[in-house]
Structure formats: structure tokens, C-alpha cells
Amino acid sequence: MLRIGVDSTKLADSRGARGEDLLARAAELGLEGVFFRSILELSPTLDRGELEAAMAAARELGQRVEAGAGKVNPFATPEAPGIRALGGGDYLRAMRMMIEAAGSVGITELWSATANYQFRLRGLSAFDRFRTDVEWGEQLAATERFLHRLAPILRDSGVHLNLETHEEITTFELVRLVESVGPDVLGITLDTANVLVRGEDPTAAARRAAPYVRSTHIRDAALFFRPDGIARILQPVGEGVIDWALLLEPLRDHDLMLSIEGIVEDTRAEMTLQIYDRRWQDGHPDLDLAEAFEVVRLTSSYEARVAAGDAPGWQELHAPVGDGESLDFILRSARALRDLLARPASARPIEKAGTLA
């Protein structure tokens, strides 16, 4: 069963709100659940009473609850000092505390990610994948070792840790991590717009990740050719380049929340695929040429829509995010998803010949 939820951090007026209030707000908007980026949003101290109160509110409102824990790349964890402080200086202990607290109140799907994106920087240096002090392969190896240490904790708690298709990692790499550590404790959070940043066709990426997808971040994207590559800018579902009927097809039989991750007041999360840079090219050993060409085709197609007046262009998408636009992004996405999910099986797409897995 697919249900439609929302990312708490992108829900309008969410800053500082209690978990119960966000659940009530989601229900008021006709949504079916909330993905809390951190379980600490429900209780900063992991107080059992506070967590149980939030879950009781969710049950009363018919809301699904998913939450997040810390990052799992040891080279990225220094950027989360609050989590280390939670564990009294012991990051592994803090992760154990969050996992066990989640499991104790019935939160069985926990988000995580492998690294960070530095919005204040430009170019390859914004991506942890291209750090020069530690190569990406070393970061993946350290992440895998740490996940193996978390595996028995997750198993004992009955919790899945779902790694996001974040800006720095590919679905190929995530699938390998899941299969190494074990799908009984590890899954994938499919972010539909992020896969584009790694040069992946969203439809092919969804099929590749589908056996292990247990949570999602749902948003569309506009693509533009730029002097340094291709720029990705977030758009509501159905208004960007993604073929949603095809993307959702391998997920139709999942018990899954489609968590709409919108925009905030100061950004539409523009990122650039530095496809002309040899370092970018060499840094993607799994890159499928047909998928890369598909991203180029999607970019050309979007720019044609702009030229025809059928889609917002570069200048429009670089205007300040207006009052109410963050909420409107969520509501438009929810309407589009409801329409897609309401279509009968006979109206579902037949996979195009030649589409690569």
C-alpha cells in the first residue's frame, strides 16, 4: 500500500513545532503520515513518555510515523556534534540510543544518509563525494564497517535503517551496501530528485533500488544546460522531468509512504551535475552511458517546454520563494500523487522497449 506523507522539515511553519502538532497539521492537509528527519524532533532527550505521546497522537490521527537517525559515514559525523553529545561523546552509543528508542515505540523505519552537501560552496567541492582529504572509496569502506557495527543493534530492535539516495551516492553503491550488511536491517530511502544529480535516469534508478526501498523523499526536478554542466532545481511532482507513472510502477506493491520533500523559504535546492569535468566522469565508475544520455534528453525536453511557455524557466525558478509557495509545493505534489495512485491497473504504463534496468 502506498500512502502520501510529508517531510517534517519542509512542512510550512514547522520550525520549532512539536511532533504532535506536525502530525495534526499533516492530517489537516489530508496527508497520511510524517517523516521526521530526526527522531529527536519527537523528543530531544528520547524521553519514552514524549515518544509514546507522539505515537499515540499519530494512531489517533491515522498517521504513519517515520523518523531519522544520524549519518553513518564516520568522515561526515563530526558535522553532527549534537548527536555525539547525545551519546556523551560516543557517536555509536548515540546511534544505539536512537535506534532502540525508535524500536521501543514502534518506529521501525529510520532514515540515514552517507554524507553532506555544502550549499555555501560551488562546484565539485560542495559534494563530499569529491573530498580530496579522503577518497570516496575510503568513505564507503568506513561507512560499510560502521553499518556492520550497527547491524546487531538494528536486528535486536526490529528496526530498518534506510540509506538515502543522497546527493553524493549512487543507487549502485547503495545496493551494494544493503547486500553487504543485510536487507533484514538495511534498506534504501529513494529520493527521486537526487538520483539525477549522480547522472542516473530516475525510472531506472527506482527499478534498481526497488527491492530494498522502504522509505522515500518525493519531489520532481527541472533541468537546465549550464556552462559547467546540467543544473537541477526542485519542482512539484508532475511539473518536472520525471515520468511518475513509470517510476512508481516497481513500488506499487510496497508498504511505503511517499514522503513529499518540498522547498524552504530560501532555496529550491539547485545542484549541478559537473558532467564536463573529468573528475566528475572518473568519479562515477558505475555510470551507465544510456542513463547519462537520458538525463541529457530530459534536460533538452524540459528546456523545450520552457521555450514553448509550458514550464517555468531559469529566471522564474531563481526568484525568491514566495509566501505560501512551500506549502503550495506540497499540496500540488499530493494532488498529482493522488491522481497517479487512483489510476486503475489497466491504465498503468507498459515499460518502453529499450529502457535499461
Automatic annotation (TrEMBL):
<dbReference type="InterPro" id="IPR050312">
    <property type="entry name" value="IolE/XylAMocC-like"/>
</dbReference>
<dbReference type="InterPro" id="IPR036237">
    <property type="entry name" value="Xyl_isomerase-like_sf"/>
</dbReference>
<protein>
    <submittedName>
        <fullName>TIM barrel protein</fullName>
    </submittedName>
</protein>
<dbReference type="InterPro" id="IPR013022">
    <property type="entry name" value="Xyl_isomerase-like_TIM-brl"/>
</dbReference>
<dbReference type="Pfam" id="PF01261">
    <property type="entry name" value="AP_endonuc_2"/>
</dbReference>
<keyword id="KW-0119">Carbohydrate metabolism</keyword>
<feature type="domain" description="Xylose isomerase-like TIM barrel">
    <location>
        <begin position="23"/>
        <end position="262"/>
    </location>
</feature>
